[in-house]
Design brief:
This protein is an all-alpha fold. The protein has one domain. 38% of the residues lie in helices and 0% in strands. Helix 2 runs antiparallel to helix 6. The longest helix is centred in the first third of the chain and has 14 residues. The radius of gyration is 16 Å and the shape is globular.
């Protein structure tokens, strides 16, 4: 009985189209004023490998594999550099090189995301230093 119930829930959710508004550049978040466009430490270069190891793998488990909830619902796979830059279902703005405040991954990890829930979903917020690493990487151009 539980299997039938799970199958029903899964099929019901799979049939739903997840649509959320596309927020353009005119959209302002509460975090945008606090977001640092400048690199917090210009002496240290941050690469995608750094962000993958210190931010994505420990804090973004739903976006680690093709079967993950964040990939299935949001279309955003964070373990592939090209797909990170290509974005997800909400558009290519997941990571906007040189513009952390315009990047959804920064907005969604802040206190007031412009759409949906704060990430990590149902988890603890990223520690400020971890989130700053993400911001620094994007501010430096989101280099591989």
């Amino acid at each position: 009985m539980i299997t039938v119930r799970r199958l029903f829930v899964f099929l019901s959710l799979a049939a739903c189209e997840v649509t959320e508004p596309n927020f353009g550049a005119e959209f302002q978040t509460a975090d945008r004023g606090a977001c640092r466009l400048a690199d917090s430490d210009p002496e240290v270069d941050v690469t995608y490998a750094d962000v993958l190891a210190q931010v994505i793998v420990p804090g973004c488990s739903c976006h680690l594999s093709l079967g993950g909830f964040g990939v299935t619902v949001g279309g955003l796979l964070l373990t592939d550099y090209d797909r990170v830059l290509g974005g997800g279902r909400h558009g290519p703005e997941a990571v906007v090189p040189f513009d952390p405040c315009g990047s959804y991954v920064v907005q969604k990890t802040g206190t007031s995301p412009p759409f949906g829930a704060r990430m990590p979903l149902n988890g603890r917020a990223l520690k400020p230093a971890v989130r700053q690493l993400l911001i620094d990487w994007i501010a430096e151009g989101a280099k591989e």
